[in-house]
Amino acid sequence: MKYLLFFAIQLLFWSCKGDLDLIVPEQAAGINSPGEIPLIYEEKIDVSYGRNVLQNYDLYLPSTRNNRNPVIVLLHPGAWRIGDKGAINSIVKRFIDKRVNCAIVNANYRLTSSIGVTYNEQIQDINTLLNKLKNESNILNISSNFLLVGISAGGHLAMLYANSPLGDKLAVGVAGIVPPVNLTSPTMYNGSIKADVQKLIGKPFSTNSEEYFKASPIFQFTQGSPPMIVFFGGKDETVPIDQAEICNKMFTVSRMNNEYNFYPTQTHEWNLWDETINKIINFASKNL
Asked: pLDDT value at position 237?
């Protein structure tokens, strides 16, 4: 009974602090500490949010969760046309190993390899997913504050969703790892993934440059944009350095809340995950 009372007080203390406490410590603080704080993640796998086979997600619910901490929503890479949430299960595990006190969502979305799917449909998928989670937040005992974390193409979609008028702007923060941000650049529409970019838009740049502009997150940035943290690599040949440079420039012009991280020796095959996740958690704790 004493242990349960102490644990309840600890949880109340965490939820009432001014800054978010997103990490559950392994040991409770205090001289009369009962010892280790238990933390279990309930898993719900392949939950549907639409009729398409790719409209599904995995959900991880920490036993210590509250309805205030953000929900981390992961969006996988794959040049918009391939990929699956299973490819980033290791990133889910890294967040769990950090003992993050947030529900974690690992989501699939429709791919441009299917006829009729462009960035518009992929943004619709993110919006549908977040609205479903928002509507179920009371049942799940989670917040409706969503931190989108996207890698490569997933990072592009996360940043675009948070800033464009295409969705309901339910994201309170965004983390983009090696994301394409300016599709009007020749390095994108005529670069190494030009065929994938054209599939994403549905038309070549020469016939509809305006659509490439609308699909580029940096041109949607405003001072009212949600806080954003990004990571770029100096040796990335898929998302070249001009993408990093203009992203940083547009952060400054828009005066939005941001953290820009540039690693000169990193390639598109990112390998600084421990540091990256620590920075994302710290950024969310300070800004969401």
From this structure: 97
Amino acid (one-letter) located at 233:
G
Domain boundary assignment for the chain: 39-287
**What is the C-alpha separation between 230 and 259, in angstroms, rounded?**
6
Which overall architecture, per CATH, does domain 39-287 show? 3-Layer(aba) Sandwich (3.40)
Which positions of the chain have pLDDT values less than 50? 1-18
How far is the C-alpha of 205 from the C-alpha of 185, rounded, in Å?
10
Q: Which two tokens stand for residue 59?
A: 């959900």
Asked if 265 and 204 touch (Cβ cutoff 8 Å), the reply is no
The DSSP secondary-structure symbol of 65 reads -
CA 25/CA 85 separation, integer angstroms = 28
> What does the pLDDT look like over 238-275, one tens digit per residue?
999 999 999 999 999 999 999 999 999 999 999 999 99
Torsion angle (degrees, nearest 10) of CA 281, 84, 169, 42: -60
Do residues 159 and 195 lie in contact, with contact meaning Cβ atoms separated by under 8 Å? Answer: no
List, in sequence order, every beta strand (DSSP E) within the chain: 41-48, 56-62, 71-75, 104-107, 146-151, 171-177, 228-233, 258-263
